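hey can u run this one w/ NAP bound, need the structure tokens asap thx
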Amino acid sequence: MENQKTNLQGKVAFITGANRAIGLETARGLAKLGATVIIGARDTEKGEAAAESLRVEGLAAEFLLNDLKRPEDDQTAYDYIANRHGKLDILVNNAGIMVEAPSASDIGENETSKLPMEQLRETFDINFFAQVRLTQALLPLIHKSASGRIVNLSSVLGSLTLHANPASPIYSLKAFAYNATKTALNAFTVHLAHELRDTTIKVNSAHPGWVQSELGGKLAPLGIEDGSLTSILLATLPDDGPTGGFFHMGEALPW
Ligand SMILES: NC(=O)c1ccc[n+]([C@@H]2O[C@H](COP(=O)([O-])OP(=O)(O)OC[C@H]3O[C@@H](n4cnc5c(N)ncnc54)[C@H](OP(=O)(O)O)[C@@H]3O)[C@@H](O)[C@H]2O)c1
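ok here u go:
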């Protein structure tokens, strides 16, 4: 996978959950390559502050209020991007939650049999249903791009192959709600990529690595900048790049 000299001048990217952590750093990285980035955030003050932090660096950044809990925000996003830009080149479905542990560092015993249904539903609502819904809503604008790219922020914790292997480093990390949503998101990647296989749009799942953020926790080995690299790589794939895959730093992961 090569994208070292990518020039994103004229390209428009929308990144959800981009007010902080991996999302903000992904936006910064894409803007540094020349893209106009739209910072999706559910809080106006935080989102505006994040966009302004990029603008003071001389980057092209806009803020768009987008709460994945609010289906009506999908149409608002469509209208905003359609009216202002007329197309969408890159969609990074970055926002995500883990409700069963304060952070990935805190995943404890396997409590699948006791997981409250509300936690399972809440996690699926944000990490899966909202991602599918928003992508469906914005797809007509992505079709208007010459080379649309959709990046779904999954996790290695969504890999059933690794979960089934006692020798895998993630074998004991059985946060059922979070993990299952990422497995489902991977299914969305595969199915949407197949539907779009004869178009110029590429759809891939990203595992950013175990990254120091609120979600990753303090024990994570990767910093935020490294954590944004996989998303940036997949958002800037060349036309002969892969689609329907699951990657970390350019390496394919098992489903
Ligand atoms: N960090 C890791 O080690 C790791 C590993 C594998 C995969 N991932 C995935 O990478 C993505 C980014 O993770 P991160 O570590 O940067 O997480 P984070 O620090 O917890 O940030 C999550 C982002 O999602 C936003 N968000 C949460 N609920 C939302 C909603 N209802 N509507 C819109 N935005 C919402 C948050 O906004 P607020 O600031 O308003 O809360 C925040 O901007 C996630 O999908 C995560 O699952 C992370």
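The chain has a mean pLDDT of 97. anyway lmk if its weird
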